[in-house]
Specification:
The complex is a heterodimer of chains A (381) and B (115).
Chain A lengths: L1 H6 L12 H25 L4 H12 L2 H72 L4 E3 L10 E3 L7 E2 L5 E2 L1 H13 L5 H12 L5 H9 L5 H7 L1 H4 L7 H9 L4 H15 L7 H11 L4 H19 L9 H6 L2 H4 L2 H7 L3 H7 L7 H5 L4 H13 L4
Antiparallel strand pairs in A: 1-2, 3-4
Chain B lengths: L5 E2 L4 H10 L4 E2 H13 L2 E2 L5 H10 L3 E7 L5 E7 L1 H26 L7
Parallel strand pairs in B: 1-3
Antiparallel strand pairs in B: 2-5, 4-5
Helix pairs in contact in B: 1-2
Classes of the chains: A mainly alpha (381), B alpha+beta (115).
Chain lengths: 381, 115
């Protein structure tokens, strides 16, 4: 047991803390003292000093080997401990370095992720702002408040404010779901669709048109044929063109036909001549106020017809034959409700003052009926 | 009677040094002289080998050492037994004697028949 404890150093002294050079010098001094004392003894026995030292060294043994053994005994442990300490220090430095590197890398990655998030958010905000700026109706009128003051309030995204079919305020998507459910309650009944659309068109500002745009793909053809009416018949609805564009671009022919029919009142032409014509017309007019659309399109048509309308004989000119049929489909009530004086526009282009005598000169009944209708819109003053 | 020198077996030099130091503190040269004066002149001792043994025993705390002045007034390293070293001396001395007796009994016994 004692030997074991000794081996593991329980009884051993702690390593000599002095500098290694000092320990080595002590070993040299100790060994040199022995050789010198031995040489002196030999000299006293009669040997010459040189011979005495040589004999002393001979008796001493391998001086270099013994010196190394002494040094190893005295310093070996300490050198070993120093090496262990050096290795441990190196490992510690490496570990700390790794930790620092990992920490810094994590920081850089976290910073990069935050920057990316910030950039994505900024890009999203910029896109949303651009969409708001490009919107035809950035200002959404809110319902009048309890005091009846009402007013126009800038709506922010996600703030709610869209009326559901039950009259509650929600965000656009949520409100749209309630209206979609309302339509689906009687999916193929066109009268039901028309009634729901009338309520939708009565919503304040652009809400009806926005909600309709959201749910349009889910509506049945029967409902699509009906839902445009409340928006376009009243004429004064500020977002009539947006609803008409939904119908015009629909895949169902019956829906597109109705849109083209209703559009005649606004465009004073048949837009069923191809997508390009219709698309070009919407591109030119969709962002303009409805009153301006009505007025300027009517003026353009009246100007074309008025130039050709020299006398009643000219009603048989080919150009006029092409232009006059739109009279069949124009709803003059729309102009009255939009506050546009159609009679003045027509008269200004020489189309006023058509009398019964004039009409009697037109042989073709269909053309006579159209001329009569036109005359009724701009009676002579 | 032949006077041929013999080599010391391993560990014997440490035991001899401990035994000599039991008389009092000494430097290495004095320890060697004391061993040889004690009648071990026929032992072939390479004098320098004493020093690694002294240093090992110092590390084991069997010996304590300090520098002092020798009889010739030179600087010398003096060793003395510690209590641990004294206990070690007793243990090693006892072990040596048991070993020596055992070896002696074997060597002193008559040869087997036919050998």
């Amino acid at each position: 047991m004692g030997a074991f404890l000794e081996r593991i150093g329980i009884f051993a002294r702690s390593p000599d803390a002095r500098p290694l050079a000092e320990i080595a010098a002590d070993i040299d001094a100790e060994l040199e003292f022995h050789v010198a004392e031995s040489a002196h003894a030999l000299e006293r026995e009669g040997l010459e000093p040189e011979l005495a030292r040589a004999e002393a060294l001979k008796r001493f043994g391998d001086y270099g080997r013994i010196r190394r053994e002494c040094a190893r005994t005295q310093m070996g442990e300490r050198v070993m401990l120093q090496r262990i300490q050096l290795v441990l220090t190196g490992l510690l430095v490496a570990a700390v370095g790794m930790l620092a590197w990992s920490y810094q890398r994590a920081q850089v990655q976290a910073r990069a992720a935050m920057d990316a998030d910030r950039q994505a958010t900024a890009a999203l905000l910029a896109r949303l702002e651009a969409q708001v700026a490009a919107s035809a109706f950035p200002l959404r009128p809110r319902r009048p408040d309890a005091s009846g003051a009402g007013g126009v309030t800038q709506m922010s995204f996600g703030s709610g404010g869209y009326l559901t079919s039950d009259g509650e305020e929600m965000d656009l998507a949520s409100a749209a779901r309630t209206w979609s459910d309302e339509f689906f309650a009687q999916n193929t009944a066109w009268r039901h669709g028309l009634k729901v659309a009338e309520r939708l068109a009565a919503l304040p500002g652009a809400q009806g048109a926005e909600i309709l745009a959201q749910i349009w793909p889910q509506l049945s053809v029967e409902h699509k044929e009906q839902v445009m009416k409340p928006f376009v018949f009243d004429g004064g609805h500020p977002h009539a063109l947006e609803v008409l564009e939904l119908g015009f671009q629909d895949d169902a022919t019956s829906v597109k036909e109705r849109a083209v029919l209703y559009l005649t009142t606004y465009a004073w032409q048949n837009l069923w001549r191809g997508e390009t014509t219709g698309s070009a017309w919407f591109a030119a007019w969709r962002d303009r106020p409805v009153e301006e659309v009505l007025r300027q399109n009517a003026e353009r048509w009246a100007g074309q017809v008025g130039t050709l309308f020299v006398d009643f004989g000219s009603l048989y000119q080919n150009e006029i034959l092409d232009l006059l049929p739109v009279v069949d489909d124009v709803r003059v009530e729309t102009y009255a409700k939009a506050g546009v004086d159609l009679g003045s526009i027509l008269r200004a282009h020489g189309l006023g003052g058509i009398t019964a005598a004039h009409l009697a000169q037109i042989g073709d009944p269909a053309m006579r009926a159209r001329a009569a209708k036109l005359a009724s819109w701009c009676p002579a003053k | 009677m032949p006077t041929e020198n013999v080599d010391l077996p391993p560990g014997a030099l440490e035991l001899l040094a401990l035994k000599v130091l039991a008389r009092g503190p000494m430097h290495g040269y004095a320890i060697v002289r004391a061993i040889q004066d004690q009648g071990a002149e026929r032992l072939r001792i390479e004098e320098g080998t004493l020093y690694p043994a002294l240093h090992r025993m110092e590390r084991r705390a069997w010996l304590a050492a300090e520098w002092g002045a020798s009889e010739s007034n030179r600087r010398a390293k003096f060793y003395r037994l510690t209590p641990t070293g004294r206990a070690a001396l007793r243990e090693q001395e006892s072990a040596w004697r048991r070993l020596s007796d055992a070896v002696g009994r074997v060597l002193g016994s008559p040869s087997p028949k036919g050998a």
